[in-house]
Amino acid sequence: MPDAPLLFHMVESGPRPVAPFSHAVEADGWIFVTGQMPDTPQSPGILPVGIEAQTRNVMANLQTVLAGIGLGLEHVVMVRIYLTHFETDYAPMNAVYASYFPERRRPARTCIGTTGLAYNARIEIDMVARRPA
Length: 133
Description:
This protein has 133 residues and is an alpha+beta fold.
């Protein structure tokens, strides 16, 4: 049986891409969501102050992309988080992040400190989700 074609998703209500990419790419029910920034679709390139507000905006953008393709956070299996101020932002980011997933239903996760992100953001998050069969 041949593999299903790749689906390249651009969500009309989603955040404006900062580079040439799709919001998500789907392959055989696996969805790879591009890392999202802490701006909003209404204010591209304008970031809120502080890691808590930036984390909430990133999560809202990820939820918008997932909803645009008929999924939600309950379908997420893996998360990667990138922080430019790892030492100071890790704990407060975790406090906000944890509120989005039930304690016994949290995706696998990697968190990485990095030297820079687009828009001089403090955080970027990407996800891998799985469409129900």
